[in-house]
Design goal:
The chain is an alpha/beta fold. It is built from 23 helices and 13 strands. Helix 2 crosses helix 3, helix 10 packs parallel to helix 12 and helix 19 packs antiparallel against helix 21. It starts with 8 loop residues before the first helix and ends with a helix.
């Protein structure tokens, strides 16, 4: 350890209980102040031992700071062998620090017990240390936390003490673990530039983001096919005159060229409002609900950013497996915010509701009293919304999502295969309309090929029986017979395949005219592919047609491709998807460099 004379007081001061009011000019004075703060006499055996320990801790603080600086300066230049050595050395150092803390617990516990002889009470901090060694994130079920000292908790309330949580409505270790995990997954090597805040549902995340971005009288360009709940939130809350009176400008296209035309039209149409101070923002969903079609996200972002407009993207249906918009090489092509409903594929179990907003650090959080890149601390998502609204994600749900994320890629591979096979099966029938970019002849297939990993399709799409004379009663008889192979559930992204009628459920808040603009008819079926056996699904679909439709339209169920051809299709698609995935992984040669 360095001598006290060589230690930087400023580096060590954050470890002091008097970090803001200290008069110390040396580490030795910091040690003396610490003992005095807790009324410990330095001339006693306890005082001498405590002072010696404190000196070592102040030295360790500076050593770890230097270790972090060296890591930042050298990491990019290291080969894989050195990186492995760096990691394992730091991992063991963490165990050593934890061991020191564990060693402290016995005298700590005995002192506490001696203070509570008459009415012994459990003090949980004794039992929390072993959780540091948990192989999975600990589920921290607590509302509040133990204070370190007055000046540290003051910093925590100012947002200047990131490791000292004060209230689980604001931060919780399990919640933070999930936030770190989704940023790593979504942003990859750009993760250091982004933060995430988790919410109790996808809609809570969207509401928080819109509440942070929108001001009274603003104009919002919105892609036409958004989730029905978002439509309702925008139309029935933000757009109401007695609320935020936001003007909604619905964008019907998918390409950057269509967006450029729409943007110019909106700027001209609302020139007076914009001149009077209203701001223009962009909210898009890609892939969109209910058809699963993709928008040209990079192109739209670049056009919007050229006009200094913020872009919010709901990327729930893509998941980071299909699309990683925050990893685009050109920053101007990245959205400013990415939203996910964890409830869907990322968790994948159908057991919890949760959501997240991901954004650049300076837009998500800054300590009080600071500003960065034109954003004041009070305008960040944390202080402006998250801190005061309380729609936080509790630890149990955070753990559920973290557990589900472990199988995300494997589940999405199966869904990609099932989607390709099932949509081609449906499309082989002359009287079934399939609205899915999984089909190469679909008008959205080009954007899907450009943007999604390996050109894989979204597992959500719509289909209709092209029988003009089919009435609602006849259709309902067929639709109801699809259970149990197709789950009649309103959510998506689970392991089982789900089917619903958007006009009557997820998009029922829209008027008939709005539904027609969104391509939703009374008999439109929204299909969310799961991880089921796709051939079992197909067999059940044909049997349902035989039972409900063939008596009215004889032979309708015979209009699909031959069974042997479908078997061949399934094997070919499964082999292609797995070859694409495993072929895209780094080679062993690259991993050993």
């Amino acid at each position: 350890m360095k001598s006290n004379q060589s230690l930087s007081v400023e580096t060590c001061r954050p470890l002091s209980p008097r970090r803001h009011t200290s008069d110390a000019n040396s580490v030795e004075q910091l040690v003396e102040e610490q003992l005095a703060h807790f009324n410990i006499r330095p001339d006693t055996a306890y005082g001498q031992a405590l002072a010696d320990t404190a000196r070592h801790l102040y030295g360790a603080q500076q050593g770890v700071q230097q270790l972090w600086q060296v890591t930042r300066d050298t990491l990019e230049r290291l080969d894989q062998t050195d990186k492995l050595s760096y990691f394992n050395a730091k991992k063991f150092l963490s165990f050593q620090i934890a061991k020191v803390l564990d060693t402290l617990q016995n005298p700590f516990r005995q002192t506490w017990q001696s203070l509570n002889k008459s009415a012994p009470q459990h003090y949980p901090i004794f039992d929390n240390v072993p959780a540091l060694f948990s192989a999975t994130p600990a589920v921290v079920k607590t509302a509040t936390y133990v204070y370190a000292c007055t000046e540290w908790i003051e910093d925590a309330f100012e947002g200047k003490e990131s490791t000292h949580q004060i209230y689980s409505r604001l931060m919780n270790p399990t919640n933070i673990s999930l936030a770190n995990a989704i940023v790593d997954l979504e942003a990859g090597d750009q993760a250091g530039a982004y933060l995430a805040w988790n919410f109790n549902s996808g809609m809570a995340a969207i509401d928080a983001l819109l509440s942070n971005v929108l001001s009274h009288g603003d104009i919002l360009i919105v892609s036409r096919n958004v989730y029905g709940g978002v439509y309702q939130l925008l139309h029935d809350f933000f757009a109401r005159e007695n609320r935020l009176n936001v003007t909604l400008a619905w964008f019907d296209g998918y390409s950057a060229e269509e967006f450029a035309d729409h943007l110019a039209q909106i700027q001209q149409q609302y020139a007076d409002k914009l001149a009077a101070g209203s701001r223009l923002h962009v909210y898009i969903e890609s892939p969109c609900n209910p058809h699963g079609l993709v928008l040209d996200v990079p192109g739209i972002c670049k056009l919007a950013h050229a006009q200094q407009l913020l872009v919010m993207l709901d990327s729930t249906l893509a998941t980071p497996v299909l699309h990683k918009p925050l990893q685009h090489a050109d920053k101007q092509c990245r959205p400013d915010y990415v939203v996910h409903s964890y409830t869907k594929d990322i968790c994948g179990t159908g057991t919890t509701t949760a959501g997240v907003v991901i954004g650049e650090n300076h837009r998500m959080f800054q300590p009080k009293g600071t500003s960065c890149e034109g954003v004041d601390w009070s305008q960040t998502l944390f202080w402006d919304v998250y801190y005061i609204k309380g729609a936080f994600l509790d630890s149990e749900k955070a753990f559920d999502v973290l557990t589900g994320m472990k199988t995300l890629t494997q589940r999405m591979l199966t869904k990609v295969i099932n989607t390709q096979v099932f949509t081609h099966f449906l499309d082989s029938h002359p009287h079934i309309k399939v609205n899915s970019h999984a089909l190469s002849h679909h008008e959205n297939a080009g954007l899907r090929e450009q943007q999604h990993s390996h050109g894989w399709p979204c597992a959500l799409f719509t289909a209709e029986l092209d029988l003009p004379e089919l009435d609602r009663v006849q259709f309902a008889r067929f639709f109801d017979s699809l259970e149990p192979a197709f789950g009649h559930q309103i959510s998506i992204g689970q392991t089982n395949t789900l089917i619903l009628c958007p006009a009557l459920t997820s998009h029922s808040e829209m008027s008939r005219a709005e539904q027609q603009k969104a391509g939703i008819a009374l008999t439109t079926m929204r299909i969310a592919m799961g991880c089921d056996c796709v051939k079992s699904l197909i067999a059940h679909f044909v049997l349902a047609l035989k039972q409900a439709i063939d008596p009215i339209h004889p032979g309708f169920s015979d209009g699909f491709m031959a069974a042997a051809r479908l078997d061949e299709l399934h094997q070919r698609v499964a082999a292609e998807v797995h070859a694409q995935y495993y072929g895209s992984q780094p080679t062993l040669v690259e991993m050993l460099k």
